[in-house]
Design goal:
mainly beta; 20 strands; about 0% helix
Length: about 220
């Protein structure tokens, strides 16, 4: 699910029903819940509004390994751009610029792409701590993005040489947490908020070795 930045009542949805759906909360009814939708024949893994046209373009990734960009101003019968990564389990994507994004895969692989040259990966890297990537979030102020999933989270910083691991949680063992799903976001430019399937919430600061103020829901 992704909320349009300029019109928060407009939501793009995707999932196991293999559809990309557009919903306006001000106009939705039981009889007509969607403004429009398109059947993709692929499980939708992630949905985001594109930063270069946030009011009109929405993108998705699929478990089949495809990135697709749709223009919602027209009937969503076919994507305006489609990239086949030739690799399954493309679980998430995150924009780090108007034309650049990072793709995250189920085996821990990261790819940095420029949509103007989609057939060439700017950087390809393997996350050393996240076995399966489920979420990526970029923070422009930090100049970094946080990666989370099974069974840890890492923070990567972009530089002129590509993407390099900046830090990771350090407080968890991959072996002991291999069945724990983590979901991490930037709380601010210097702090990461992480939750996991064990019911733990922690704030991590530079170094990320010890969480500050962790709380447990159970």
């Amino acid at each position: 699910m992704s909320v349009q930045p300029t019109s928060p009542q407009l939501i793009a949805l995707g999932g196991f029903d293999k559809r990309l759906s557009l919903v306006d909360l001000n106009m939705t009814t039981i009889q007509n819940p969607c403004l429009q939708q398109v059947l993709l024949q692929e499980v939708v893994a992630s949905v985001k509004w594109a930063p270069n046209n946030p009011s009109s373009h929405v993108s998705l990734t699929s478990d089949a390994g495809r990135y697709s960009l749709f223009d919602v101003r027209a009937r969503m019968t076919a994507p305006a751009q489609s990239i086949d990564t030739r690799k399954v389990d493309l679980f998430t994507h995150e924009y780090i610029g108007e034309h650049t994004l990072v793709l995250g895969f189920g085996d821990g692989e990261l790819r940095h792409l420029d949509l103007r040259r989609p057939n060439v990966s700017l950087v390809t890297a393997q996350d050393p701590f996240v076995d399966a990537i489920g979420r990526i979030e970029y923070h422009a102020g930090a100049g970094a993005f946080v990666v989370s999933g099974y069974s840890d989270f890492t923070v990567w910083r972009l530089n002129s040489l590509g993407a390099m691991v900046w830090s990771h949680s350090g407080g968890s063992s991959r072996q002991s947490h291999q069945l724990s799903l983590s979901s991490a976001v930037f709380f601010d430019s210097e702090t990461v908020l992480n939750t996991d399937a064990n019911g733990t919430v922690g704030l991590f600061r530079p170094g990320f070795a010890v969480p500050t103020g962790p709380e447990s829901s159970g």
